[in-house]
Amino acid sequence: MSMQNVKRWQWILISLIIGAGFGYIAHLPTADWHSAFGKTISQQEFEEGLVREQSGLKWFRNLVVYPESIDDGNKQLKLLIVSGEYFDGRLQDQNGTRVAVWNPRCFIAEGAYMPITPNSRSKDTGTVIDYLKTVKGASFAYAWWRDPAWAIGLWTAGSFLVIGLIWPTLINLIAFASLSRPREEKGIDLSKVSSGSSQPAPPKEVDLEAAAKMAAELEGKLGVDAGATPQQQQQQKHQPLPPPVLTAGALDSLSEEERRAREFGQDRDDFYPTDRHAHPKEKNFQPKEDKLKP
Predict the structure, then answer these.
(1) Dihedral through CA 255, CA 259, CA 261, CA 264, nearest 10?
(2) Which residues contact 7 (CB under 8 A, 6 or more apart)?
(3) Where are the domains of the chain?
(4) Helix, strand, or coil here: 166?
(5) pTM for the structure as a whole
């Protein structure tokens, strides 16, 4: 699936997941402190480095305070690591010249900080951050992006802004030349279509009068009595129809010519006289006298 097919709400969901994931990773404990912050210094070196100078520069400078935590058995200890560049007071030879060299170092403070050499502004209780604020000329930054209270929220908000809002807008400008995607055509809504077989339609109302009339016509044609039982009706259907009766009126209706044209006779094989039809070729046949007749 190409990126232009991903909708904005999907980009927003992706941004929230990515932001929350990076925020969680950001405040996980650092695996290797020496490589990340440098070698550790003692509390005495830490406090001296904040006030002593070399060539107008503090021995412990460019300070950044990192919130960290470590697992100590069944509980988790919260620490503050003061990381910076430290000069130990010993000059080193570089190209034939003795110079001051600052190296990465860190100081680890756990819980309340109790200074070795208190000043007029320091308090009896407080964190190492509170102590740094009381030291004249000391400047530091706080790594808020490592603070669990800020890491997840800030990473999620930043990811939402970049991935959820800016990125899909750029894709829409490139793909559609518009800040938003064009509206998609609505498809056919199949949610109301039943998956099962359709129910048969209810029977229509029958016209009783028309049905009775049709039944009467059939009874008249079949000669079946509607009031009879089913067995009687079946017997009436199989009874042969009576032969037609010839009446005198039917015979009188025949014309005289038709009567003359019809001749009835009986052959040896006939049980009763039948109508004789002469063959067309024998219409003018005249029987010859029998020569054998005496």
Answers:
(1) 160
(2) 181
(3) 3-23+153-176, 29-146
(4) helix
(5) 0.51
